[in-house]
Amino acid sequence: MIPRGPSVVIRALPRLGPNFYTSNLGHTRTTHRTTLPYRSSTTLTHQPHTTPPTPDTAPTPTPRRSRLPWIYATTFLFLGLATGQLVRYTILPPPLPLPNTHEDTILLNSLNAQADTLPIVLELRSHHADWKEWPAYSSIPSPLREHRLSTGPMGGARGLGVQRVFWNEKEQRAISVVFFGGGLSGLPGVVHGGSLATVVDESLGRVAVRQFAQKTGVTARLELSYRAPTLANRFYVLRAEVDESKAEQSSDRKVWTKGVVEEVGTGKVCVEAKALYVVPKGVKLGPIEDGF
Question: What predicted TM-score, i.e. pTM, was given to this entire model?
């Protein structure tokens, strides 16, 4: 039996060989084996604890606050205020003074001063030999003006604040510079179509009556095409002349005229018009004098 204990004695047989029994007979080799504690094949090396290096700490700069929000806020604020004022004065303008009042006279003087600086007025005046100028309806006596549509209800700064007529005798055509006031509006800020028709009718009529020996006439037909809105409180140019395309339809008692209403500066056409004027038979009309 093999003894049990802290040590184990193993009797090992020698390597068998041809002379085993002759050379080693009776000889016994004893091997002692001691149990050793388990040791890992991995060697652990103890390293001292070190603190990682700390980078140089510089003071963190305070980030600059962007000015873009302030710029945007200021821009939209002014845009909002401007838009609000524009809408307010267009949709709900302040009350306009009545004709023949002190306030109305001040506004009329201001409008006439503005008309004097318009490029179209300066150009026509520079050719004064060809263009004769007068204020519209200046030939009508003052007591009668308030009873006429264009000089009474449509008069004053709130209506037809300015009407300058330029007549070219050689070319038989007229150019009028007209200011349409806020009192002539239909839709807010837009001149009423009836107001435009009245002014266009009388402007074309100035050309027509000068073609008749009687120097008078009435409107037989008026055709208007509204091409673009005519905004109130602005100056416009009205051009009128004989319609040569209908010359064969004209006679000593009837004539066709045509005209346009244009924006000052841009030349944008807002209204196109054609009209037929006649001298009625059996009706005696007074002549329309120069200055109408």
Answer: 0.69
